[in-house]
Design goal:
The complex is a heterodimer of chains A (716) and B (146). Chain A contains 13 helices and 41 strands. Chain A has 716 residues and is α+β, with helices and mostly antiparallel strands. Chain A folds into two domains: 162 residues, Cytochrome Bc1 Complex, Chain D, domain 2, CATH 1.10.760; 477 residues, Methanol Dehydrogenase, Chain A, CATH 2.140.10. In chain A, α2 packs across α6 and α2 packs across α9. Chain B has 146 residues and is α+β, with helices and mostly antiparallel strands. Chain B has one domain: Superoxide dismutase, copper/zinc binding domain (Immunoglobulin-like, Sandwich). Chain B is 19% helix and 44% strand. In chain B, strands 1-2-3-6-5-4-7-8 form an eight-stranded antiparallel barrel. In chain B, β5 and β6 form a beta hairpin. The chains are: A alpha+beta (716), B alpha+beta (146). The interface between A and B is medium-sized, with 35 and 28 residues.
C-alpha cells in the first residue's frame, strides 16, 4: 500500500471510529423502548449493507423503493404494529430475495428503522412477536445522529458488498490482453451494420432488435445447443446487451465491469473492473457502445468511461451527474458524439436531469439537454411555478435511437418525481418534458420537437422506453410503448400524433383522443390527494417496461413483451427541500382483472395498420427484450427461467429450454465463420419487473445467484 | 345517412331496446385483493369465480371460492369508478362460512348501477376472518369477454 493510500486508509478508519463513537452513545437514549441500543446499531450496519442500495443511506428512497424515514415511513407503518413492520420486511425484503437474511438481521433492521424514525431504545430486546403500534413509539423525526452516520454507512455498505461478491483482483484492469486484428468501427458500420454483428444496444440506429441472419429458422431452432457459457458478476441488477464486433463480445457486467471475450469460445481477452461494486438492486448498465477503437460505458455512479477496445485501458472518463445520480440506460454513438442519459433524479437536487453528449475522441462535453424544463426556458412554465430545485424526475434510463437521414435522435423521458402530483404539488401541470418523446439534433442538443404522452403523469407509469423508427413508403414513423401499454405511432419528422392502440387492459386513462393523442385521466387520479390509495392497471411493472420490443422488418410485426399486474398506490407528503422528494409512494399488489392470473403476454402488431396479429399469455412475465431474426424466429426469456423461440408469423412456441435463473437482459444474434449464434443472459436485480412477480407468484423459486451468459447455436 | 346506414342504425337501436328482455350473462374470476408483505400470506393463493345474469334489471349471482386461509365471513356486490378500481358495497351476498364454499345473491340494479355493470365497474368481494376488508375480488364482465 502506498504512503498516500495508508494515510487515506488511516484517516478513513479514524473517521469511522469517530463516527461510531459519536453514533452509539448519543443515538440511543435510554427509555421504555421495544429494542436495544445494540440491536439498532447492528441494524444500521445491516441496513446499509442490504437495504441502502435501494432505500438510500439517508432513508429517502429512490426508484421503486419508498422512503423509510419521516412522512413516508409514518404514512406506511404508523398505524401498524412493530410485529407487522418486521413481517413486512421479512416477507418482501431484500427485493428479489425476500427472507434471505437471518432472523437476527431482520430484527436488528426493524430496530434500526424504528430508531431512525425517532423511537427510543430500551432494555428489552425486540423480537418478531413484539407488537406495539409504531406511531406510539416513533415520531417520524430522524435523529441528527442518523444523518451523521450516513457516510459511515455508505462505506460499510460498499465494503460489505465487496466482501460478499469478492472480486478476484480488485479494481482496474484486472486481466490484461489484446484483441487481435481489431477493426475500427466506422460511422458507415454503425449506419449499416454487417449482418453478423451487433454493434449497439438495439443492433441498429432504428432500434429494431432485429438480426437479418437466416440460418436459424422456425424449423431447425429445436436443434439449438449450448455452445459456451460465462459466469458474470453477481450482485446488483444484470440487464446486459452483449456487443459483438470482429469476433469479440464486449460484455457489461454488474459492478461496472467490462470484459472482452472471444465470441467463438468464450475465452476472456481483457477485463476492466472500473467499479464501484454493485449494491443490491443497483441498476444494470444495459448497453455499451463501440466506435472507432473505443468502447464506451456509462456507470452506475454517473460517470462515463472510454476504454481502448483492444486492451481495455481507460482512455478518458467524465462525470455525468452528482453522486446521487446514476447512468443505467446504455450509451449510443452518433456522428462522433457519445450520448447518454441520466437517472437517479428522484430526490430534489440542484443539477436536475439531462441528456449529455461528449466528443468520442477526447471526452469533451459537447452539450446537455435538460429533460425537466427549467425556469425561463421553453416549457419551463409547465411546473405550477415550482423552482428548479423541486423539478424532480425526467430521468432518461433507456438510450435513444437515431435517424441519420433526418440527423435526429429520439429519446423517451421518464415521469416527474415524486410520483404523485399531489406529493410534488404540480397538480394538473404538464411538467415538461416528463413522459415525452424528444427529437433532438445530436450535433447541438437543440430540441426539434416533443410529444408528451402523459402530461402530469402521477402513478409511476414511465413512457421512457425504446423509440422504434419504422418507414412505410414515404411515411417516417416512430413507435413506442410505455407502462400504460398504449402503443403510440408518431410522425418522426414533425412529432405529429398518428395513432394509439391499447395493447392490454388499462384503467388509468378514461379517454384517449384518437385524433390528437391527448389523454384524459380517470377522475380520482385528477382529484388525488396524498395518503389516498389509487388503483393503477397496469401498475409500475407495466404494461411494457425496459424489456424492449423487436421490429421484425420482413413481416412488419412489432413483437411486444407485456406484463399484466396492477397496484394500489398511495402518494406521501414530502419535504420540499434539497434532498427531499423521492418517489414517495407505497404500493399494494394485485393480479390484473380478467387475465386469469397470467402476468406474461406476448403480442405482435402489424405496424402499418396497428392491428394485432397474434398474442398469447402465460403465468410468468417476460424479463428479456424480444430478439427477432431474418429466419422468422423471435426469442424471449421469462421470470421462471424459460428461454423460448416463437414463430414470428404465428406466435407458436417452436423451442424452449430452461436456464439457471431468470432470463433477463437483451438477447442478441451474431455470426462467425458462417455460423449463427444466439446470446442471452440470466440475471437478478432491478425494479418493478422483478419485484411484482416476486410478490405475486408464490410458486416460483429462484436461486439467489445466477448472472450468466449463454451462447446457443445449431449443431456442428 | 345512406339507406343501408339507416337500416343498420335502426336494427342496432332495436337490438339495444330489446336487450333488457333477455337475460344477459356475466362472469368474474375472483383473485386476491391488493396486498402488501404484511397481509400477503392471508390472501395469496385464494381463488374463485362467479357467474351472473341480468334479467329485467335484477342481477343474480352464484359462484364458488376455495383456498382461503381463514373462513369466509361475508360477500358483497360493489361499485367502483372503473374495472379494477375498488368502491362501495351496493348489496350483500350470502357466502358459505368456510375456507371453500359458495357465494350467491340477488340485487336489483338502478340505472347508474346497470351502467356501471356495462362498463365493467361492478365487482364481487368476499371477506374472511383474516381479511375482513376483502380477501377475494373480481370484476363482472360479459361472458366471453375474457
Amino acid at each position: 500500500m502506498s504512503r498516500t493510500r495508508k494515510f487515506l486508509a488511516g484517516t478513513a478508519a479514524l473517521i469511522a471510529l469517530g463516527g461510531a463513537y459519536a453514533f452509539a452513545p448519543k443515538a440511543f437514549a435510554q427509555g421504555h423502548g421495544v429494542f436495544t441500543d445494540a440491536q439498532a446499531t447492528a441494524g444500521h450496519s445491516a441496513y446499509v449493507t442490504s437495504c441502502a442500495g435501494c432505500h438510500r443511506a439517508n432513508l429517502a428512497g429512490g426508484g421503486d423503493a419508498p422512503g423509510l424515514g419521516g412522512n413516508s415511513f409514518m404514512t406506511s407503518f404508523g398505524n401498524r404494529s412493530t410485529a407487522d413492520l418486521y413481517k413486512f420486511i421479512v416477507t418482501s425484503m431484500p427485493a428479489g430475495a425476500p427472507g434471505s437474511l437471518s432472523e437476527e438481521q431482520y430484527t436488528n433492521i426493524t430496530a434500526y428503522l424504528l430508531w431512525a424514525n425517532g423511537a427510543k431504545a430500551g432494555a428489552a430486546p425486540f423480537n418478531k412477536t413484539t407488537a406495539v403500534k409504531v406511531s406510539a413509539i416513533a415520531t417520524g423525526t430522524i435523529p441528527p445522529e442518523a444523518i451523521a452516520a450516513q457516510n459511515l454507512g455508505k462505506m460499510a455498505a460498499m465494503e460489505a458488498r465487496a466482501a460478499e461478491f469478492a472480486t478476484p483482483a480488485g479494481h482496474g484492469l484486472t486481466v490484461s490482453g489484446t484483441v487481435k486484428n481489431y477493426v475500427d468501427v466506422t460511422d458507415e458500420m454503425l449506419g449499416h451494420p454487417a449482418d453478423g454483428e451487433w454493434l449497439m444496444y438495439r443492433r441498429n440506429y432504428q432500434g429494431w432488435s432485429f438480426s437479418p441472419l437466416t440460418q436459424i429458422t422456425s424449423d431447425n431452432v429445436k436443434t439449438l445447443t449450448l455452445k459456451w457459457a460465462w459466469n458474470m458478476n453477481e450482485g446488483g441488477a444484470s440487464q446486459v446487451t452483449p456487443i459483438v464486433h470482429a469476433g469479440v463480445m464486449f460484455l457489461s457486467n454488474t459492478s461496472n465491469t467490462v470484459q472482452a471475450l472471444d465470441a467463438r469460445t468464450g475465452e476472456l481477452i481483457w477485463e476492466n473492473r472500473i467499479g464501484p461494486v454493485s449494491k443490491i438492486a443497483y441498476g444494470g448498465t444495459r448497453s455499451l457502445a463501440i466506435y472507432h477503437d473505443k468502447v464506451f460505458v456509462a456507470t452506475t455512479d454517473a460517470k462515463i468511461h472510454a476504454l481502448d477496445a483492444r486492451n481495455g485501458k481507460i482512455v478518458w472518463e467524465q462525470t455525468l451527474g452528482n453522486p446521487n445520480n446514476s447512468a443505467t440506460g446504455g450509451v449510443m454513438v452518433m456522428r462522433g458524439k457519445v450520448l447518454t442519459g441520466l437517472t437517479g433524479c428522484d430526490n430534489y437536487s440542484e443539477n436536475n436531469c439531462y441528456i449529455s453528449a461528449f466528443d468520442a475522441d477526447t471526452g469533451k462535453r459537447d452539450w446537455k439537454f435538460f429533460t425537466t424544463a427549467l425556469e425561463g426556458q421553453p416549457g419551463g412554465d409547465t411546473w405550477n411555478g415550482l423552482p428548479n430545485l423541486l423539478r424532480g424526475g425526467g430521468d432518461t434510463w433507456i438510450a435513444g435511437t437515431y435517424d441519420p437521414e433526418l440527423n435526429t435522435t429520439y429519446w423517451g423521458v421518464a415521469q416527474t418525481k415524486p410520483w404523485f402530483r399531489a406529493s410534488r404539488k404540480t397538480f394538473g401541470a404538464a411538467t415538461l418534458y416528463s413522459s415525452s418523446t424528444l427529437a433532438l439534433d445530436p450535433d447541438t442538443g437543440k430540441l426539434k420537437w416533443y410529444f408528451q404522452h402523459a402530461p402530469g403523469e402521477s402513478l409511476d407509469l414511465d413512457e421512457v422506453f425504446e423509440r422504434v423508427l419504422i418507414d412505410h413508403g414515404d411515411q417516417k414513423t416512430l413507435m413506442t410503448i410505455g407502462k400504460p401499454g398504449i402503443l403510440w405511432k408518431l410522425d418522426r419528422v414533425t412529432g405529429k400524433f398518428i395513432a394509439a392502440k391499447e395493447t392490454l387492459f388499462q384503467n388509468v386513462f378514461a379517454n384517449i383522443d384518437h385524433k390528437t393523442g391527448a389523454v384524459t385521466y380517470r377522475k380520482d387520479i385528477i382529484d388525488q390527494k396524498t395518503n389516498q390509495w389509487l388503483s393503477s392497471c397496469p401498475g409500475p411493472e407495466g404494461g411494457h417496461d425496459w424489456q424492449a420490443t423487436s421490429y421484425n422488418q420482413p413481416s412488419d410485426l412489432l413483437i411486444i413483451p407485456l406484463s399484466q399486474s396492477c397496484v394500489m398506490i398511495q402518494g406521501h407528503d414530502v419535504d420540499m427541500k434539497l434532498g427531499g422528494g423521492g418517489t414517495a409512494a407505497s404500493q399494494k399488489f394485485f393480479f390484473m382483472p380478467g387475465t386469469h392470473q397470467n402476468m406474461g403476454k406476448l403480442v405482435a402488431y402489424r405496424t402499418s395498420d396497428m392491428k394485432e396479429v397474434w398474442s398469447w399469455q402465460q403465468r410468468v412475465p417476460f424479463l428479456t427484450a424480444v430478439l427477432s431474426t431474418g429466419g422468422g424466429v423471435a426469442f424471449v426469456g421469462d421470470f421462471n427461467r424459460s428461454f423460448k423461440a416463437v414463430d414470428v408469423k404465428t406466435g407458436k412456441i417452436v423451442w424452449q429450454t430452461r436456464l439457471g435463473n431468470t432470463v433477463q437482459g437483451y438477447p442478441v444474434s451474431f455470426s462467425l465463420d458462417g455460423k449463427q449464434y444466439i446470446a442471452v443472459a440470466t440475471g437478478l436485480g432491478g425494479g418493478s419487473p422483478q419485484q411484482k412477480p416476486t410478490m405475486l407468484l408464490d410458486e416460483v423459486h429462484r436461486p439467489s445467484t445466477g448472472h450468466q451468459l449463454y451462447v446457443f447455436g445449431l449443431p456442428d | 345517412m345512406s339507406r343501408p346506414g339507416r337500416i343498420l342504425s335502426c336494427a342496432t337501436l332495436m337490438l339495444l331496446l330489446a336487450t333488457p328482455a333477455f337475460a344477459a350473462g356475466y362472469e368474474a374470476e375472483l383473485d386476491p385483493v391488493p396486498f402488501d408483505a404484511v397481509n400477503r400470506a392471508d390472501v395469496l393463493g385464494s381463488i374463485g369465480n362467479v357467474t351472473a345474469t341480468l334479467d329485467g334489471g335484477t342481477l343474480t349471482i352464484s359462484g364458488s371460492f376455495s383456498n382461503l386461509t381463514s373462513n369466509a365471513t361475508g360477500g358483497s356486490v360493489r361499485i367502483g369508478l372503473a374495472k379494477g378500481v375498488p368502491g362501495d358495497a351496493i348489496a350483500a351476498l350470502t357466502v358459505s362460512h368456510g375456507r371453500l364454499g359458495q357465494v350467491s345473491g340477488t340485487v336489483k340494479l338502478n340505472a347508474a348501477q346497470a351502467a356501471a355493470l356495462n362498463k365493467q365497474a361492478l365487482y364481487i368481494r368476499i371477506d374472511s376472518e383474516k381479511a375482513p376488508d376483502g380477501n377475494l375480488q373480481g370484476w363482472l364482465e360479459s361472458v366471453g369477454n375474457n
